[in-house]
Give the backbone structure.
Amino acid sequence: MAIYHDIRNRLSKMASSRMRDRVRRTKIDRRRQPGAPPGADPDVLADVSRRLLGAPPRSFQHASVSGYKEATAFIFWMTDAAGKTRRAFFKDVNLAPERYPAIVGFPGRPGLPEADLFKTPTNDLSAFLPPVYAHAEIEPDVHYQYFLADLNATHRWGFRQDDLLDAFDRMLEVSAAISGWMDEHPDNRLIRYDGEFPSRFVEYARDALGRFHERTGDPRTARLLGRWDEVASLYLSETPETADDAVHGDFRRDNMFHDRRDPTRIAVVDWEYGGMGWIHNDLVSLLKMAGHETVTAALGRLALARPHRSAEEHWRLYQRCRLERGLLDAALVANQRLARSDEPTLSNVHFERVNDAVGLLLGTPAAPIS
């Protein structure tokens, strides 16, 4: 009977994952618009299309798949005269302040790490990158465009709960691949999450949330700002002096594609925040929606993989990185929406993560923020 229930649960999880995957693809299909993706270089677009179709393209369609940022990422469909259609991915990264206000004041240059990694990948790193059809620097250090493989045909989104612990092993391999790349490219532009970053990050987050409160009068932000000294002091005191690991910077399930034939192989997208930090940065992103048992199991694996820290030290650094991620997500969204919306909003999720991490680090129930 136990075996029956186990098989039924596994089948249920697989069906749920497939349904979630199908719903996501359907939503993208419904957003289709005629024409090429905005901003795409026509010559490069034509070259990529001919390469994939084997013939000149006759028509295009596109759909935006961007999140809180201005439309910068698109799935696009290309069709030739015979009616054959192929899909690809177009990413337009413009780091100019007026185009990406979220990162103004951020202690690093998000976006430049991805440009470097895509331009000169090592063999080990290429195993985790989506195939790149074209890479163009439109304006040095500011504006980049990528034409990438659409992974949906060969991969699935990493939404299964069972995927998380499998992805943990891949996370360590990704870290090693980035480290190897950095050894070959010492003058890289990847972000350093140690050194001056923590203190400058506190200023960045405080400024963003302060301006958000001034505009909206949001009571959750007011409560967080009211205990800012405590939160900032806790975050800084839990920060190690030097970074241990190369990190992807946003290793969440939405950015992870599992090979349909071999689920142990993954491709990872959105390398904009890659750099040197602590593997706990990526673990926090990976486990955002995970339950307590999964988190405990992952931290147990991490203690074995990184024995230079005790289990308690790993746990505290994980909570410290949860606190940073909550503040980062809130500050990025606040900055972007302050510049783009007359009525900016923030989700309760950001405040809940900050509140939970603070309470766990202090060892006492934290005063509610959300």
